Amino acid sequence: MSFLDISLEEKQKALAELRDVKQLFADRGWFAGTSGNLSIRVGDFTPEQFHFAITASGKDKSMQTPEDFLFVDQQGKPAETTRLKPSAETLIHCEIYRLTGCGAIFHVHTVFNNLISEYFWDRKSVPVDGVELIKAFNIWDEEAHIDIPIVSNYADIPRIVPEVTSAFNPQIPGIILRKHGIYAWGANAFEAKRHLEAFEFIFEYVYRWELLKRGG
Ligand SMILES: CSCCC(=O)C(=O)COP(=O)(O)O
Ligand SMILES: [Zn+2]
């Protein structure tokens, strides 16, 4: 499906959803210093061809302007004529869509996701035991154990892509970049938001539990 075949209505719906999520996360302080990026996929999906709307690079994401988003293709190239630059991390979105066929991907930098990524860097994953919010990932086992993958944070984004490919676990809808932030995804914006919120809750819980175990 070419970008032109995707209805205007679907494109506008994606942009409206991105605007709402961006405002909500901004109000939570989740876009410190222009960090973070958000995307929603539109149109049909094959791993070889897809399109998505993504935040423009370097913007103050706590502000709403007419130039906050643009549409790109599966290679991260603008799908329309625009002077906007897609997020510097667009290739990570491309790879997550390619691997999952998901509908939305949200990336935020928080103090807890940064701290926890460094604390567990040696094991390349954050272990989580029996926290109720694991159910937000549709994992319903009692006292479930999960490992949330952590990958390197290279300055050269294309170098991160194969790490995402290797670390990807279809059961866990998120990947942490070391001392950088979390990428969470879902079938749609509602699910990606639920997953992101669950990850952030879990990171704070694990961080505080580690402190408590040390008598802190
Ligand atoms: C200022 S934070 C460094 C870049 C980053 O990690 C990020 O999430 C925002 O980059 P973008 O190009 O999407 O604005
Ligand atoms: Zn980032």
From TrEMBL:
Reported cofactor(s): Zn(2+)
GO biological process, one term: L-methionine salvage from methylthioadenosine
Swiss-Prot/TrEMBL catalytic activity: 5-(methylsulfanyl)-D-ribulose 1-phosphate = 5-methylsulfanyl-2,3-dioxopentyl phosphate + H2O
Pathway: Amino-acid biosynthesis; L-methionine biosynthesis via salvage pathway; L-methionine from S-methyl-5-thio-alpha-D-ribose 1-phosphate: step 2/6
Binding site for Zn(2+): H107, H109
Molecular functions per Gene Ontology: methylthioribulose 1-phosphate dehydratase activity; zinc ion binding
Classification via InterPro entries: Aldolase_II/adducin_N, Aldolase_II/adducin_N_sf, MethylthioRu-1-P_deHdtase_MtnB
Record has Transmembrane as a keyword: no
GO-annotated cellular components: cytoplasm
Boundaries of every Class II aldolase/adducin N-terminal domain copy: 16-207
Cofactor details (free text): Binds 1 zinc ion per subunit.
Entry's EC annotation: 4.2.1.109
Assigned keywords, A-Z: Amino-acid biosynthesis, Lyase, Metal-binding, Methionine biosynthesis, Zinc
Primary role: Catalyzes the dehydration of methylthioribulose-1-phosphate (MTRu-1-P) into 2,3-diketo-5-methylthiopentyl-1-phosphate (DK-MTP-1-P).
UniProt-listed NCBIfam families: salvage_mtnB (TIGR03328)
Family (UniProt): Belongs to the aldolase class II family. MtnB subfamily.
This protein's name: Methylthioribulose-1-phosphate dehydratase
The organism of origin for this protein: Paenibacillus abyssi
Gene, per the UniProt record: mtnB
